[in-house]
Amino acid sequence: MTTTATTVNSRAELPQPQRRQGSSRLSNILLPVVGTVGSIVVWWGITVVFDIDSFFLPAPPDVIEAFSREPVYMLQELWHTLYEVLVGFGIALAAGLAIAVLLTAVRVIERATMPLFVALNSIPKAAIAPLLVVWLGFGTTPKVVMVVLICFFPIVVSTMAGLNSTPAELSELGRSMSASWGQMFVKVRLRWALPHVFVGLKVAITLAVVGAIVAEIANPGVGLGSVIVISGSSADTPMAFACIALLAVMSVTLFYIIVLLERLTVPWAREITG
Fold it and tell me: How far apart are the C-alpha atoms of 125 and 37, rounded to whole Å?
């Protein structure tokens, strides 16, 4: 009887981790939604309670009305900005990973060039935007270059941190199995570095949107940054807020796409970090 009761109790306890996992997933979806809706409600309440004119702070209905005036135009400009972000981010990702590997493998090059990278990253990107127009002309190219410049450093630093964080135990295990440098790098160091790499990617993808908008404001033509400039010159604050709302949606979407890729690529990272 005791054995039977123990078996029944163990079976009854089995679904509890699954229920906790299900509730955790539900909270991961609901809490951001509740936070977003709550922020919009507070924003709307402030405009109503203090009777703020839409010229200074438009209410959510004013922003929706501004978007509904020209939805096709707004989505077209959103696509231009998204294109600049994705192309620039892709170039920064490829270049950042390659340079991080080089700097980690050859310490002499790291010591010689890292101060230069830090100095370049410290330059305000808004100051570079007009120069990019002079050097590269008008159009998409200077905007993509701005995205690359603003995304590059976080990817390099995070990748180098990951490659340099390989536990000594794993390195000793590889040497005891006579693994070559290439095998150690691909199968041990690179895999161990992936969580750090994704940290850099999550930071870089949000900065990519900032870089694209800075470039579009400095070089108006196409994109949501250009619409913000036009809205400011015509005192159409709701339209500017509609652009900001679209940029926020785009940034959040791109960020969570990176999060999803991280969970699919390195599912073990959450287990070893608790």
Answer: 33
Dist CA 18 CA 26 (whole Å) = 12
- Mean pLDDT, the chain, whole residue set: 85
Reported as a single tens digit per residue, the pLDDT across 144-177 is: 999 999 999 999 999 999 988 877 777 777 776 7
Task: Pull the structure tokens for residue 123.
Answer: 């330059």
DSSP for 47-64, written as a single string:
HHHTT--TTTS--HHHHH
Distance of alpha carbon 115 from alpha carbon 216, whole angstroms: 29
* Tokens linked to 132: 């990019």
DSSP string, 226-238: HHHHHHHHTT-HH
**Cα 36 to Cα 30, 155, 243, 256, distances in angstroms:** 10, 29, 17, 15
Q: How confident is the model at residue 8 (pLDDT cuts 50, 70, 90)?
A: very low
Alpha-helical regions (H) of the chain: 2-13, 15-49, 60-69, 71-105, 107-122, 125-136, 141-163, 168-176, 181-184, 190-218, 224-233, 237-265, 268-272
